[in-house]
Design brief:
Structural class: alpha+beta
Strand content: 25-35%
Helix content: 25-40%
Number of strands: 4
Shape: elongated
Strand order of the largest sheet: 3-2-1-4
Radius of gyration: 19 Å
Order of helices and strands: HHEEEHE
């Protein structure tokens, strides 16, 4: 039987995450790809998890490749 209270009991309080920590969560691991309209055409913007735009590409495949080449996991935003 497991008598370790950290593994069997409920935590006393929910850990809090600051707004800054939340904004930085995943910033070094995830890139979001979103189509954007610019001058009547569609480009594909690559954003960090914190919302910072990292680049613009002509195709979604180029955007995914850029994310992967920079060690980021590309995710699509619709």
């Amino acid at each position: 039987m497991n008598k370790d209270p950290l593994k069997t009991g409920k935590p006393d309080a929910t850990p809090l995450m600051s707004a800054h920590d939340f904004a930085q969560w995943g910033v070094e691991h995830v890139a979001y790809i979103k189509p954007v309209e610019i001058n009547g055409g569609t480009l594909f913007a690559v954003f960090a998890a914190n919302g910072q735009q990292l680049g613009l590409m002509e195709t979604p495949d180029m955007a995914r490749a850029a994310a992967i080449q920079n060690d980021l996991e590309p995710l699509s935003v619709h």
